[in-house]
C-alpha cells in the first residue's frame, strides 16, 4: 500500500553541455536530492542536451535515443540503487522519421512504471518543436509507483486544463511538468513578467481545479548557440504547489537548485471534501468539449 505521505523533488539545472556531460551532471543531482530525502524526483524537459528546438536542423535528430537506451539504463540503475522514483524526460527515436518528446517514469526497483509522450506540440519562434516531435499517442495517464500515483505531462501540456483534468481523474495525486521555457531576451522587458505570471497561474489553477499537487522543473541560463540570434533565456522559477495552489517551494530565476515538498494524501482528501469540484462536474453537459470550436 502506498504511503499517505511522501517527498517529491524538482531539480532545476543549466543544461548547455553535451549529452554525456548532462547525464553525469543529472545523475549527481538526483543523488543529492535522494540524500535529502526525496522519494520522487523530476528532471527538466529534454535533460540530455541544450534546447535544440531553437532551429530546424536535421542534424539535431542525432541527439535522439531509442527506447531503453542510454538514459533508461543509467537512471534505471540509479533508481534501484537509491530506492527512488525518477522522471526522466528524453528525446525518443521511435523509428526512422518518427520521434517523440518523452519521459520515462522509473520505479524504485529500476523497472519502467510508465512512459509518457508529449501530447501538445508547439511551433513558436525558436520553439520549433513540430519539426522534431510527433504528437504523443499514449494518452494522459495516471502512473502507479511504489511511492504514489503520479501523472507526467510535458511543458506545452501545461497550458491545457483538459490534460490536467484527464490525468487527475484517473487518480494522479501529483502532476509533474518537466519544462523548458524562457524569454526571448529582446521581449523580456515588455512581456516577461506577464509571460512568467501566466505560466505559474495556469498550473496553480490546475492544482486548485483538480485538488492535486503540481511540480514543474524548468532549466536556467541563456542558451545562445545559434549565430545572429538572441537565444532563449530560460527563466527557472521551478516550483511545487499544493492542492489549493499554495506555493510549497520555489526556485530562483538563475540558480541550480533542488526543491522539496511533502505530498500529504490526507490533506488532499480534506481539500477535495471541502472544495468538491470533482463532485459537481456536469459531465452530462460537456460533450462539445471535443469540438475544435463551437460555431
TrEMBL record:
Residues 6-265 form the CN hydrolase domain. It comes from the Bacteria. GO terms for molecular function: hydrolase activity. Keywords: Hydrolase. This is Carbon-nitrogen hydrolase.
